[in-house]
Amino acid sequence: RATQYTCMLLSYLLEHKADKEKLVMKLKQLESSMSSGRKMFRLGNTVHALVAAKRTTQLPDVVPRFCLTTSNLTRALYFVCDTVLWLRSVGLQPDIDNQKWRNWATKCYYFSLLMNIARDWYEISWRLEQAIQKGKTKENASWDKEDHKLNCLKCDSLPSFLLLLFQILKRHPPLLLDLVKNLCDLSSPLDALGIYKTNPGVLGFCGLISSLVGILTLASPHLKLKQ
């Protein structure tokens, strides 16, 4: 995935260079190959998404339970559509309406991301509320330095709110990384559905950032937001 989006970004940056035509063509071919390969590697992900949905139905908190279960179910539908598109791309089902299935896949992916972002915002809101309540009650006299920074802030203005938000995300790297990844991933369906059109350079950059965050959370599991 990181390779695919790196190729997309580089081909966009180099496409107007007079002596880079062959390199741009090779980058686009590699990007296409990576995209096709990823579809094949995702063939079993429908089952994984359904298992994840079953697991998230057991969450005690109703909001994360709803958001994550809905996200996993729509993600499973996305993988079904993706499999159909793969069957067409390899010639097993050439009569499939490519545009229709691609549009369905994009909508499922878009809705899944919205649910993930809603869950992230719920987590942030809960932590913001906890920090504000701590600042108001001041019941614990043995705050550490970081707690004191949070409790001294008030959300009575936009700068104060943004500063408090920054402190919350700084203290919870898994939440920050999950939010960054979901927001970066959102650029692709927004562009494909015509909600917010952009260019391959932005899509490549956002996809690369998202992929690097994914690699980081795989290498360091403690940085992955727990479900």
UniProtKB/TrEMBL annotation:
Keywords tagged on the record: Membrane, Peroxisome, Peroxisome biogenesis, Transmembrane, Transmembrane helix
GO cellular component: peroxisomal membrane
Taxonomy, superkingdom: Eukaryota
Protein name: Peroxisomal membrane protein 11A
Cellular compartments annotated: Peroxisome membrane
Keyword Calcium annotated: no
Residue stretches spanning the membrane: 201-219
Source organism per UniProt: Struthio camelus australis
BP terms from Gene Ontology: peroxisome fission
InterPro entries in the cross-refs: PEX11
Presence of keyword Transcription: no
